[in-house]
Amino acid sequence: MPILVDLHKNSIINHICPLYTILYFTMEQTISIIFTSLVMIFTLPISIILLFLRWILSKLFESKEKIPESLKKFKEGTQESIIRWYKITKTSNIDPEEEDEDDDDYYLNSMLLIVKWNDIGLRYRNIQKNNVINVIQGFNGCQQYPNNLSESIFCINDILAMGKQQIAEDIVTILRRTYFERHLTSLGKVYEIQATEKGIFEIREDHDVF
């Protein structure tokens, strides 16, 4: 009879121990999950912020790296406008699927005319900047590009009657005839910019314009 009792006790213990073990491991896993969740809740915002800062820094360095040395003579806002014009013009004229690095490098279909204003000269000679801008924009194929007031950018495109280079030369000629005074303070400097498909910028300064 005692043997039967012992067997009965052993049977109960054998049923209870697995249940206890299951409960123990279940609680341990639950605590682990809760702890992991709390860690993720507190660290996830930090991770997102770090990723966002990394993205911003990469964009800043990327934009600085893409500014060619030849454009450093212009202000930062003008440099960014020139690069933006280049990207837009290149995209609208080139099919990326057909682009080949071994192909010849061609000029883009438009060019830029940039005026670096001399505000002292404008005030001294009592000439309104907008009047000069209106003269420039009076030419067909020429349109002002949005930019800061200290350096005006004009985009010149070919028209049916003449090409963009001839239009730029005619603009410089009319400015020289209208405003140039050798012994007076200059109104600013004028630059012509052409870019190739592969990002080579050719800059020419027109002297004694106004």
Write the layout of secondary structure elements.
Layout lengths: L1 H64 L10 H18 L16 E8 L1 H6 L4 H9 L4 E4 L5 E7 L6 H16 L8 E8 L5 E6 L4
Antiparallel strand pairs: 1-3, 1-4, 2-3, 4-5
Give a description of the structure.
The structure is a single chain. The chain has 210 residues and is of the alpha+beta class. It has two domains: 1-65; 77-206, Alpha-Beta Plaits (2-Layer Sandwich). It is 54% helix and 16% strand. It contains five helices and five strands; from the N terminus they run H-H-E-H-H-E-E-H-E-E. Strands 2-3-1-4-5 form a five-stranded antiparallel beta sheet, sandwiched between helices. Strand 2 and strand 3 form a beta hairpin. The longest helix has 64 residues, at 2-65. The chain is elongated, with a radius of gyration of 36 Å. It starts with a helix and ends with a strand. 15% of the residues are buried. Residues 1-9 have low confidence and may be disordered. The chain crosses the membrane at residues 33-57. Keywords: Membrane, Transmembrane, Transmembrane helix.
